[in-house]
Structures are given as C-alpha cells and as structure tokens.
Amino acid sequence: MASSLRSNLTFLSSTSPYPSTAKTHQTNTRSHTTIRCGPRDNRGPLLKGRTLSIEAIQAVQALKRAHRIGQPNDHFLSKTLSRLIKSDLIATFNELLRQDHCDIALKVFSAVRTEFWYKTDLSLYADLVSVLERKGMRDDIDRLICDLEKEGVIACDDKGLVRLIKSLIAAERVESTVVMYGLMKRSGWGSTCTADDYVAKVLSKGLRRLGEGKVADKIDREFGRLSRGISGGVSV
Question: Alpha-carbon distance 169 to 165, whole Å?
C-alpha cells in the first residue's frame, strides 16, 4: 500500500502542469530602463505649494496671445486685468516673469502699482530686475528704479531691500544703485530707521566694485567702519 502511494506521488510530481518556483523566477526576470522626461522649455519650476487659479491662467494666456499678434494696448490690459483679485494679479505677474515674458510683465506691474491696495513691495522690484538683467534689458532696469523713486519713501526694513540692491549690483547698474542709496537715506535709513549692518556692507562693497569708491567711503564713515574691513564675509 505504501509502495503504491509513493509511486502515485512520483507520477503526479513528474506530470504536474505547473512549473517550479525557481524556473518561474528565471523566466519572469526582465530588465527595466528608466526614462527621465526633461522640461520642454527653459521655464523655471512652479514654487512648491503654489498653483495658479483658472482666472490667472486665462489672463496669462490672453496676454501672451495678444502679445504674439501685436502689443496689447492699455484698453485690452485694463479689460483683462481689472477682473482679477489681488492674489491673481500678483500670480499673473509672477508667472509671466517665470516664463521670461518681461515686456508683458512690465505692463502688468504698471497695472499692479495703480491698484488701491498696492504698497511698495521691494521683493517684486527685485524679481523684476533679476529677470530683466538675465534678458539683457538693462535700460528698463534704470527706468524701473526711476519709477520706484517717484513712489516716494520706501520701507527700509523691507526684506526685499537687500535682494533689490544685490540684483542692481549684479546687473552693474551703477546709477540705479546710487539712486537706491539716496532713496534709502531720504526714507530715514540710518536715522529714523535703524540701518541694517548687512545691507550697509552689501551696498558699500557693491558700489566699490562698480567704481563708486567715494560713495562707498561715505557709507563706511556713516556707519563707523574702515573701508578695507567692511567687505569681509559679504557676498554680492
């Protein structure tokens, strides 16, 4: 009886329709190739956590379409942008900058500055100067700083101040950098408003690099620093 069972088991094992585990593992082994998809253009990435509303997307598309067939006039700009709330208007401006559409972004920024809620935001100026410099639109930078000067006083404790100064120095806009220093002084920087030590160092080192040693010396004297020791540890 035992002999009969053993023979039956041997028969079943040899005729089983299912392949062994080891064999299955060998036959199912496949090679995988990783494919990486790069960007389709030179746009920068959207900031993490930032998404555009439908209204902002439509505004960006409409402005770009109008720009392709001819410069959008003031009436078209007003009609397109007037329906946007504050956050969408700023998002439209930032998205145009991200896509390097400087000409349109300048027009949108002009519209932003006419809004009743607008207060001088040096961070927006810094972003715009950086993109204009990258696109070689340096004369537009000077005009932009002239517009900023017309706005009157600025908040010298604005976090965007040092970014704007660095952007101007990087663009090698000597006159505009000197204008910014004068605007800072008229706004109470170093008198009614405490002058930030780091801003003073960046400004002095940058002006000296741009050939404005006398103005840099003046800053050094005002803040009690030796001109040769002021630039240590500061990057512009």
Answer: 6
Rounded distance between C-alpha atoms, residue 154 and residue 151, angstroms: 8
pLDDT band at 72 (very low <50, low <70, confident <90, very high): low
Nearest residue to 88 via CA among 58, 67, 65, 66: 58
Q: 179-197 burial, b if ≥16 CB within 10 A, otherwise e?
A: bbbebbeebebbeeeebbe
The Cα angle at residue 124 between residues 96 and 38, in degrees rounded to 5 = 40
Token couple for 62: 């409409």
- 168: CB partners within 8 A, 6+ apart: 129, 141, 145, 176, 177, 180, 206
pLDDT one-digit tens code per residue, 77-125: 888 998 899 999 999 999 999 999 999 999 999 999 999 999 999 999 9
What average pLDDT score do residues 170-176 get?
96
Residue 166: predicted pLDDT: 97
